[in-house]
Amino acid sequence: MKFETLENSLLKEKLLTLVSAAGLRLFVLPKPEYKKVYAALAVNYGSIDSQFITADGRQMTVPEGIAHFLEHKMFEKPEGDVFQLFAKNGASANAYTTYNLTNYLFSCTTGFRDNLEILLNMVQEPYFTDASVQKEQGIIEQELRMYEDDPGHRVFMNLMQALYHVNPVRVDIGGTVESIRRITKEGLYDCHRTFYHPVNMALMVVGDVEAVLVASQVEANLGKRGYRQQKAVERLTPEEPPEVHQAVVHDELVISRPRLLLGFKDRTDCQGRELLKRELATSLVWRMVLGRSSPLYNQLYEEGLLDDRFSARYSSAPTYAFSVLGGETEHPEKLAEAIRAGLERVAGEGLREEDFLRCRRALIGQFLEAFNSLEFIANSFVSHYFRGTSLFDYISIMEELSLDDLNKRYMEHVYPGTTAMSILWPKGRRHV
Amino acid sequence: MEFKRLSVLPGVHINVLPTAKFKTIRIKLFWRWPLAEESVTKTALLPMVMKRGCAPWPTNRDIAIRLESLYGAGFGMDVTKIGETQNIEFDLEVADDSYIGSTERRVDLLKQGLEFLHAVTMQPLLPQGAFREEYVTGEKAILRRKIEALINDKPRYALTRLLENMCRHEPFSLYRYGRVADLDAITPERLGAHYYRLIEQAVMEFYIVGGVEPERAVSLVADLWRLPKREPLSFPAAGRQPAGETRLVREEQDVKQAVLAIGLRQATTYTSDDYPALLVQNGILGGYPHSKLFINVREKHSMAYFAYSRLDTTKGLQFLLAGIDAARFQEALDLITAQLEETKAGKISQEELEAAQKSITNDFLSSRDDAGQIIDADYLGQVNNKPRRIEETLVRVNQVTVEDVMRVAAGATLDTIYFLSDQSRKDGITK
């Protein structure tokens, strides 16, 4: 059992890592001054992994939303709900599913060893029955219907469907009412067997713990389960055309003000450190152009076209990348036009050095602030790890970026851009 | 981990906690003012207008640029209600210098952060004693929306309406953001006058947590905040009112899920010796997923979508909330009050007692990992005029016995029952 040590002098943090005999990647970030210990056991399996080749060579297509469904079901055991078990042990537990991963987590200030045992057992011991699957279908159906009434969610999903032709990011993480109904006990076991193998998982522990003790507990727990070596799962992603599927999509809902989202579809031709570099460059560009300190944001704010909940962000992974910006507005079409005109103006003038330096400084400061949170550290770290990037590279890549990089990125992604627009109108007010 | 506390002027206190634990320095400034009908809305509006601009940075954009230059300093403000006090909070977070030295020369972010806070709070745009008309008008509209938005969050709305009814003879019934009806009468001049009143008479508490030397932090604050004559108000302890006859208040709205909110008066408060036992009583009754309300009302009887209890320890109030099917009002009420009766009768298993103690311990210790929560916990002690150390409270929490819980529960009296439901579902209600 030998740990490798990764030091980050800028963050003044030290990360210990090793791969267990069964193949699980373990990360420990000691934070001796913290009272709380936070543990995240993540599976490299998200909602977009709906087509894959299993370890024994079968090609499978599973119902959309099954990863999220599986996450819900993992808490249910013959002896009851694992949430209760954590709570009785003074821990607070949770789980979530994204496009890319499923993450099971807890935090506690005492009894870490017992709680880690509960977590490891829970994730490795599936227990599904026809009755419990049926009950869950009802619960998740309610959850999906609730989301359908959620304006933020609706306007975003409409945008994803406009941006993408076939990429699975166009489907809700939870699936659809129809796809959920096709989930069976057998399908859940299949997915669990395929993806919940130690080689496809990572455990990250942050807090006042002895890395060696964590590692030996993990070895003991996994060792008794007789895992056989398994190759990495091969995922199949359908070929996505570069252009958008639909330029504009309108929809309506009972809401008080219209909502606008603009989407910018990006290419997916880089990975690893380059992927992170592109991501940070794009985030910086948006902050310079439409952040709180930008002339464009303030002009639109004063014209009453947007309010302080307006946001612009970039998401990327090896198989998709896009920017989304927008918010609530009385005049969605006017706002979209004004943003496009503003972006065109910036394209003509170029980005400014002064804004670049100031915004980069702000992002570095905010990154430091986020590093106060054990939850942020662990959740971001595993997400970066699965995607082949490292959270520890954040500051050094930021410092490498130049104004030229950003201007290049601007012309490549922002202007003229490959864009789609999603508008959600208050019921009955469409096209006024 | 304890604050060093120093008073630099009448009613101006500085609390510093030096620690290397965080990568940032958290600075909070509280202005304490009485919670009262005539000032509640003005006090809520004041910081909103102040953060729109100050003499050195007169616009939103100037402020945004300034905050970015300070390595993306986080800045916000809010208003909270603690007992019969209304508190304006200015909240600033700057990076610790030692983490940002590599790119450029060392910057003194503590000093620059305090200068920024001083500019926003002490150098407002007040020519001729009035705030800028357009800022006041704009922020009034935002405050109106904020007050009206309460109705979107049904459990929070229900709790607020319960309080309004239960404490109708006390200032505590006021909503922390004030009342829409007051907005029209607030002019830039009146708001300016209110600002000057606070500068002279509010109690000001500074909190600084992070990698700082206390002496230096104190001298920076003392050098910047040179306030002329100060006549700080004194604040009496939170008002106590005995429970009257139990009242049922009903309200009808187009809601899918009805909300039942029950208000109790507790004889025990933040300042009582029995405070640790009150925390445990609440933990057993409804504070957690292993508590009686969750297990019995939600899990066993599937009667509620949520069921929990909350404390206001300063006022000695306990609230029991459940989202239910309107037709099952009486059944839910009976089941919830039965859980309270169980804590009174000592029907508490060793497992329930320990689970509550463990969860409270976890919550309190976890709060030590967050500078904002460390500050808020200490400030609560200052307002109650009884500083408490978390470590001591936890020792006592873990000594609490079933008898202690019974004694505290015996001091709980049912005061007001509030029920929010759809008008089409009137059945199920019996007085």
Characterization of the model:
- Chain A is α+β, with helices and mostly antiparallel strands and 432 residues long.
- Chain A has helices at 66-73, 82-88, 112-124, 130-148, 151-163, 177-181, 185-195, 211-223, 272-290, 295-302, 332-349, 353-370, 374-387, 394-400, 403-414; strands spanning 4-8, 13-19, 25-30, 37-43, 51-53, 59-61, 76-77, 80-81, 92-97, 102-108, 201-207, 234-235, 248-253, 259-265, 311-317, 320-328, 419-426.
- In chain A, the strands form 4 sheets. A 7-stranded mixed sheet of chain A has the order 1-2-3-11-4-10-9, sandwiched between helices.
- In chain A, helix 1 (66-73) packs across helix 7, helix 9 packs across helix 12 (353-370) and helix 9 packs across helix 15.
- Chain A is globular, with a radius of gyration of 23 Å.
- The relative contact order of chain A is 0.16.
- Chain B is of the alpha+beta class and 431 residues long.
- Chain B has 14 helices and 11 strands.
- In chain B, helix 8 crosses helix 13 and helix 8 (275-287) packs across helix 14.
- The longest helix of chain B has 18 residues, at 350-367.
- Residues 427-431 of chain B have low confidence and may be disordered.
- The chains are: A alpha+beta (432), B alpha+beta (431).
- At the A-B interface, helix 2, helix 10 and helix 12 of A face helix 2, strand 5 and helix 11 of B.
Instruction: Assign the CATH superfamily of the largest domain in chain B.
Output: Metalloenzyme, LuxS/M16 peptidase-like
Q: Please, how many helices of chain B?
A: 14
Share of β-strand residues of chain B: 15-25%
Strand numbers in spatial order across the main sheet of chain B: 1-2-6-3-5-4
Helix content of chain B: 40-55%
> How many discrete domains of chain B?
2
Going by helix content, strand content and strand pairing, the class of chain B is alpha+beta
Assembly category: heterodimer
Radius of gyration of chain A: 23 Å
CATH class bucket of the largest domain in chain A: Alpha Beta
Name the overall outline of chain A: globular
Proportion of strand residues of chain A: 15-25%
What characteristic shape of chain B results from the CA principal axes?
Answer: globular
Helix content of chain A: 40-55%
Q: Give the N-to-C terminal Cα separation of chain A.
A: 68 Å
Quickly count the helices of chain A.
15
Q: For the record, what is the CATH homologous superfamily label of the largest domain in chain A?
A: Metalloenzyme, LuxS/M16 peptidase-like
